[in-house]
Amino acid sequence: MQMNCARLEHKILLAESGELSDRQLEKLEEHLSACQRCQEYRKTVLHIISTSKDALPGGEPSPVVMSRIRAVAEEKITPKPIVFRLRFASGWDYIRQVGRPAIRVLAYAAVLTLVVVGWFMFLSNGQADRISELNVILAMMSEDDLGEVGYSDGSGGDRELRSLANHLLLMEGLESDDFTDVELWEIPPTALRLHNIAGLQQKKRV
Amino acid sequence: MEKTDRELLALYRNGQVDAMERLVYNYRRPLFGFILNMTEGRDDTDEIFQEVWLRAIRNLGRYRHKNFFGWLVRIAHNVIIDRARSRKLDLSLDEEREEDQSLAEVIPGNDPGPRSQVEANDCAENIAKAVACLPDDQKEVFVMRVQAGFSFKEIARIQEVSINTALARMQYALAKLRAMLKEDYEEMGY
User: Would an 8 Å CB–CB cutoff place A81 in contact with chain B?
Assistant: First the structure.
C-alpha cells in the first residue's frame, strides 16, 4: 500500500521520540526501505536533532539562587508555633477557611431571629393599635348614644359595654383568660366615662 | 541507590529539606537549559528558575505524581508567558524569515567566507542562533524535544495543544532550521 509521504513525516518524528508501537515501526521501515524521499527526510531530522543537542546553550543556576530555593523549602515545612495557630495571624485566609461555616450559621440565625421578632412585633403592635382604637371608640360613645339603648343612668351600661368590648377583643384573638384589669384611658368630658370595666387589660407585647 | 522523585517528595513532606534540595539539584541543568533557550539573558534565567521552584514548592499539593520534570517545565512555560505579558523579559525574536535565507544573511557581521573557514564551534553557535530565531511556540517544542527529551505527547500536554499540533510545530521548526543552516548542512553532506 502506497503511503502518503507528507503524512509520514509525523511518523518519522514519532519514531525518533520512541512513541510508535512495534507494528507502526515495522510499517514505517517497510515504507522507508522503498522511498528515497522519506529516507532523506529522516536522515536530515536525525542530524539536526543530534547536532542541536550539543549546540544548544546550557548551564546551571547560580549558588545564590540554589540557597534561596532551599530557604523557601525549609520555611514551607517548618511547623508554625502553636500560638500562631490560635490567632488569626493570617487574617482573612484563616477566617475564610475556618470561620466561614460558623459565621454563615450565625448570620442565618441572626436573620431568622430578626424576622421572627419583627413579625411578632408587627402583630403585637397592630393588635395593640386595634385594641387602643376600640377603647377610644367605646370611650367616645356619648351618654345620648347609650341612652337610646337604655343606659342613661349608667347602670347596666357597664355590663353591656363590657360584653361588647369582650366580643371585640376576642375577635382580635385574645383569650378570655387574658382579660384582667382594664387600663383606663383619659375620656373627653363629652364622652361616656368608662370605669371599672373589669376583666380587660391590654397586654403589652414586646 | 538513587531515590525516585516520588520518594524524595515523600521525604520532603516528612520534614527532610535535603530531599527537596536533591530534587532541585537533579533537575538543575535540564530545567535551566530549557529556560535559557527560551529567554536571552542569564539574569532572567536565574530569576525564572527560582520562580519555578518557588511555585512548585508552594503548590506541591497539586502535583499528581506523574512526571515531575514535565510538571516543572509546565510551570516554567507559564512563568515565561506571564513575564512576556508583563514585558519584563527580552524574549527572542519572533520574526518570520524567508526560507531561502541562510544564516549568514540573517545574522549581521557573519563572515560569509569560504566554507572551509567554518569551525565546528561556529557551526554550533550558528545552530544556537538559528534556534533562538524560531517563533516561540516552535522553539519551545524544539527545545523540549531536543534538550529536555520530552515525548510529543508530553509536549502537547505542557503546551495544551493536540499532539498533531505539537508535531506540526516541530516540522516547521526543522524546516526553518534546515533553511537557515542550509550552507552548514550542505557542507556536512545533508
Answer: no
| Residue among A10, A44, A60 whose CB faces B32 most closely | A60
Residues of A in contact with B181 (CB under 8 A): 48
pTM of the model: 0.58
Distance between CA atoms of residues B82 and B77, nearest Å = 9
Residue A11: count of CB within 10 angstroms of its CB: 21
CB atoms A58 and B142 under 8 Å? no
d(CA A197, CA A181): 7
| Residue labelled with grid coordinates 421578632 | A117
Cell of A33: 526501505
Condensed to tens digits (0 to 9), the pLDDT of residues B77-130 reads 999 999 888 865 454 444 444 444 444 444 433 444 444 444 556 777 888 889
Distance CA B72, CA A131 (A): 79
Put simply, whether A49 touches B (Cβ < 8 Å) is yes
Query: A161: how many CB neighbours lie within 10 A of its CB?
Result: 18
A86 touching B (Cβ < 8 Å): no
Q: What is the ipTM of this complex?
A: 0.75
Q: Which residue has cell 508501537?
A: A21
B18 lies within 8 A of chain A by CB? no
